[in-house]
Every structure is written in C-alpha cells, then in structure tokens.
Amino acid sequence: MPKARLTDLAVFGGTPAFGEPLHVGRPNLGDKDRFLARLNDLWDRRWLTNNGRYVRELEEKLTAFLAVKHCIPVCNATVAMELVIRALGLTGEVIVPSFTFIATAHALQWQEITPVFCDVERGTHNLSPRQVRRMITPRTSGIIGVHVWGRPCDVEALQAIAQEHNLKVLYDAAHAFGCTCQGQMIGHFGEAEVFSFHATKFFNTFEGGAVATNNDELAAKIRLMKNFGFQGYDNVIYIGTNGKMTEAAAAMGLTGLESLEAFISVNRRNYLAYRSCLAGIPGLCLVTYDERERHNFQYIVLELDDTVASLNRDELVTVLHAENVLARRYFFPGCHRMEPYRSLFPHAGLVLPETELLAARVLSLPNGTSVDEPDIERLCGIIRLALANGPEIRRELLAGKRQAGKYAAEA
Ligand code: T4K
Description:
It contains 14 helices and 14 strands. The protein has helices at residues 32-45, 53-66, 77-87, 102-109, 129-135, 155-165, 216-225, 247-257, 260-277, 313-322, 341-344, 353-361, 373-388, 390-410; strands spanning 22-23, 70-74, 93-97, 114-118, 140-146, 168-172, 180-181, 184-185, 192-196, 209-213, 284-286, 300-304, 325-326, 362-365. Ligand T4K binds next to helix 3 and helix 4.
C-alpha cells in the first residue's frame, strides 16, 4: 500500500515501507551457473592468480570493448591509481576535485604527493577547468579528473591546460565503465583512465579495477609494477607492488560482461521511472545524462535545494532511512573535510564553494538489478509525501532529537 498520510511515515511511527533494507550499491550479478562453471574450472586447473587464463581473457575482452590499446586488470581502482601516479612520475602537487570518493586523494597522499583540492562546476559535478587554472603552482605536476557519476569531465579543456603548463592528466573513471565522451569510450582520455570494478559498481569483479591507456610505454610499466617489477623468473627490473587481479575475480568479470547490456537496460529503465515519479517537485532535481552519449545509468543522484524545498537533504535522508531506504550522501562532506586533509588544509573549504554546496545537497538512491519499478514508485511516493509536509516532519524530527537527548541525559 502506498503511504498517503503523514502518520503512515515511519518517522511518525508507521511501519517502514520496506521490510528489508534497500541499499545503494547492491551488486549486479550475472549468470550464476556460468560463474560457478568458471570457478569449477579454475579449481580443477589449480590456477588461482598471477596472470592466469581468466585474467588474460578478461584483459582481451575489456581491451576490445573499449577499443583501447591496453586495459590492464588490477586488484582495485585505488591501487590502479597509485600505480599510474607513480608510473607517470607525478610529484609535488596534483590538482584533484574534493567532490569525489576519498580514494582519489589518498592515492596521492599515500605517495607523499599533495592533493590540491579544486572546485567543481555545479551543473556537472566535475572539475571546473577555470578553477584548475587558478590552482596551478610551480610544484604542480598533474591533474586528476574524476568522471563523477560516469558523466565525463571537460576533457578538451583539461587537456589544453595540461599542454599549456606541461602537466600530465589522468582520469579516475571509477564510475564510468561503459560510458562515452563525445562518442568515444571513456578509457581513451588523458595519459590513462582508471576503472573500479568494486562490488558496488555497475560492473564488478568483487574487488577489482583496470588501467586503460593508449600509451605503450606506460602500459609496460604498469604491467611490471603490478607484479613487483618481475620480468620472468628471479628477475626484478623495476619497483613494484602487488596489484594483481585473482582468477576468481576475473571469472566474475567475464560472467558480468556477458550481462552488461542487460544491466544497462535495467539501470536505464529504473532511471526513467525515477525521473517520471519525481518530476515537478519544487527544489528537487535528478541528475541528468546527456542523451547523445552512452551511459551505464548506475547513479540516481538527487540535488535538494533547501532554499526551495521544505526539507533539507539530511532531513530527507533521515525520513528515508526510517523507511529502510538506505540513501547515501556521496560525497559528503568532501575529501577536504576528512582526515588527514582536514588537519593539513583547514581552510581548503574557502576556495571550494560549489563543492560545499553540493556536499550538503546531494543524495544517491538505489539502482541496479535488485530494484524494480514498484520499489521506485513506493520510494518516490515517500519523497513526495515528505516534501509536501516538510514543516510537520521537521517538527517531529526535532522533537525526536529532543527526546533522544532527554533519554541520553537520564541514562
Ligand atoms: N574513485 C571513485 C570516484 C570511487 O567512487 C571509488 C570507489 C574509487 C575511486 C575507489 O575504487 P576501489 O578501490 O573501491 O575499486 C563504496 C565502495 O566501497 C567504493 O568502491 C565506492 N567508490 C564508493 C562510492 O562506495 P562505501 O564505504 O560507501 O561502501 P559500503 O560498504 O558502505 O557499501 C555501499 C552499499 O553497498 C552498502 O550499503 C551495501 C551495499 N553492498 C556493498 C557490498 C560491498 C552490497 O549490497 N553488497 C556488497 O558486496 O564505499
């Protein structure tokens, strides 16, 4: 039954709309039997990792899918970024958005390179080329653009800035597998692009990632570096780490690739259902995807402008969580407000007004193959009901907080 009255809402004591939590980031799974057959096979062959048959097959398929020269599977996107940053010889300062997952900044700081947080554009949520120019210093060696929600950065403008200042550009394409930019698959831009195949991503290998590049020399370095620098038995010719993908992960990837188009079509169907169910709510807007490009439609991202809407983002998230809809505040509060960056750069927020605004307004809703249209209708009905009754809900939430405070004081 759709919720119609205020008292139906769980924050007012009603029964939660969903018996089981509805997560953001539930994995998309391919054909179980195909996956288990691959597991049986690798088990029988006793080949579990170290560039085995499935990793090589996955590499071939990814390279063909993206039509790039190299797409090298690795254990996760964070290590992939660390490898590329090191292989490119980045030093000093690298310009990155703060409106990203913390891994983008950590991949630099881990190697004692300073992430210089740059503001994003409100419309695209991506690095603002105009602001990038302002952050360049004599110590800058590179720029990391993040294709947030799979929507491409302004790759032309970033490339032009890089050329002008002799900087290297690489992209964190963690969200952007299967997406295009000006008709070209993401994977072709900058010196290299890094994908995440984490369980929560549109396409997953449990944990995993890949480095895509058209640069042969860079690819050769990455291949060495992800396997401790080994060239053949007993011969280490370069510094390295362990960035290898396992055979079980590659088996998952090969299985997922077979269902890729099905994942996209479910995501797109869901996205369109959200779009029609949420149309016309004052102060609420759903992030859009450019119709001329290919997208994976994985991210259902809302921006709630509380100067217009009757509730702010955090109040709406509280209402949804009470209903067992575990909406997420990606990327709150912004990397610059997390450690160690908060202590290192306590005033970074002063030059990040758009980042701060977005971090306060944005929320992500569930998508993928574990969500269907009736779920979406029910979920959007709650959002509509909540935003139509903002003042009453705000009062109730405040009263609840006061109660919680009172009990805590008594305890
Ligand atoms: N760059 C960007 C822009 C990124 O977004 C990410 C990762 C990276 C780089 C780094 O990529 P990797 O090194 O991870 O390959 C999650 C993911 O762990 C992370 O990969 C992702 N971005 C980030 C946006 O989201 P958390 O800490 O929010 O994850 P967690 O554990 O809260 O999981 C999210 C939800 O997914 C849960 O509510 C439950 C559901 N879930 C999760 C897993 C793992 C499942 O239903 N099943 C599962 O197996 O970071």
